[in-house]
Design goal:
Helices cover about 40% and strands about 15% of the residues. Strand 8, helix 15 and strand 9 form a beta-alpha-beta unit. Helix 9 packs across helix 11.
Length: about 375
């Protein structure tokens, strides 16, 4: 026979439905809850199990669930009264039973406040009512933030902690997830990017990662004298520079030791941060050369770079280089990535071989003399 605790668990599963119905101005009551239990053959035991169920019913407590019965004739015990299910007649009965009266009252007040400010959130509230409850103490401040973004299109003047909104300076950062979701509904025009980081997504100033570049042709020095620069990505993208050739080196020391070359700049790829290269539109039209470690991750980064610069050439990531320095090969770091569609046939075979045997040849293990010879052959 079902127990009171089991019935309460069934009732709690209805809670989101009850909340959603309130937002829609509807009611799901009276609401039946089936017993869903196999009845014991021992009717004496069944009646004993029914005692606490009856004791906690609306008939005895004045609120909660009512019990539906039916008369059933049995061979051994004659006609027996059998419970077939339970019913909550009213929302009050239900909320008292699950001890959620105060929480529901707060939910209803929050919903009223939210819809008063943003009627367009009605569908969202019906779909995610539990998020209203989990953010109960923050709704006045959340709505202030959403209202500011909707009414102001100058977010790009501010860092997140200097926004002129009367909330504490860390509030937005602590509540980014819910604010981001709401802004997509009430002010979709504020979404500037698919990036998940809140400042980037909503066009705020933020601490941009730095990119480092060396100008390998002194005649192309920035401002007539700068040949080694580390700049925020947006400033690097705005440089009025049009090199004929760009070499991307994954590791720092190989980047620093690249020799002078005409009409060429070098960029420190810094591992997977090479993905930031997509912002450098002045790379388009240049010959882009990528040189990374001879391991699975090096080829994954090469594949990533080609997503934006499809004609990128790989350098010293071939079988000949691997064999020439096989004495310096070490164990690599495994990767679950299998498909790299932007690799050439030769690169794909090398990637598969390195992954199969978990091998790695770091750039720094290759002799400088060999590097100079290969660069001369490539460029």
């Amino acid at each position: 026979m079902i127990t009171v605790d089991e019935l309460k668990k069934k009732a709690l599963r209805l809670y989101p439905q009850v909340l959603s119905a309130h937002v829609a101005g509807e009611s799901i009551f009276p609401k039946a809850v089936p017993a869903n239990k196999v009845l014991p053959k021992d009717f004496a035991a069944m009646h004993e199990a029914l005692r606490p169920i009856i004791a906690h019913s609306k008939e005895r407590t004045g609120y909660g669930y009512g019990i539906d019965y039916e008369q059933r004739k049995t061979r051994s015990h004659g006609v027996q009264t059998i419970p077939t299910g339970f019913v909550f007649d009213t929302k009050t009965d239900y909320l008292k039973f699950i001890s959620a009266e105060k929480e529901f009252q707060a939910f209803a007040e929050d919903v009223r406040l939210i819809l008063q400010e943003f009627p367009s959130l009605a569908d969202w509230l019906q779909k995610y009512p539990l998020k209203v409850i989990s953010n109960h103490s923050n709704w006045p401040q959340i709505l202030l933030v959403c209202k500011w973004f909707k009414e102001n299109h100058e977010a790009n003047r501010y860092y997140i902690r200097e926004l002129p909104i009367p909330v504490h300076t860390k509030f937005i950062e602590e509540n980014e997830a819910i604010i981001s979701v709401l802004l997509e509904v009430v002010a979709p025009v504020t979404v500037c990017s698919e990036d998940k980081k809140f400042p980037v997504r909503f066009g705020l100033l933020y601490d941009e990662p730095l990119m480092r570049m060396r100008v390998l042709d002194e005649g192309m020095a920035i401002a007539g004298q700068l040949t080694d620069l580390a700049l925020p990505v947006s400033q690097m993208a705005d440089l009025s520079i049009r090199p004929r050739r760009v070499i991307i080196s994954e590791n720092k020391m190989t980047f620093l030791t690249l020799p002078p070359m005409p009409d060429t700049v070098a960029i420190w790829g810094h591992g997977y941060r090479a993905g930031l290269l997509k912002h450098l539109t002045w790379l388009k039209g240049a010959e882009v050369i990528y040189w990374g470690d001879l391991d699975v991750h090096g080829f994954e980064i090469l594949n990533q770079v080609r997503r934006h610069y499809s004609e990128t050439i790989s350098m010293m990531m071939d079988k000949g280089t691997f064999r020439a320095f096989k004495e310096f090969v070490t164990a690599g770091k495994r990767s679950s990535v299998v498909s790299l569609p932007r690799l050439t046939t030769e690169e794909a075979l090398m990637h598969r071989y390195l992954g199969m045997y978990n091998l790695r040849l770091e750039q720094e293990r290759i002799s400088h003399g060999y590097i100079l010879e290969r660069i001369e052959a490539v460029v």
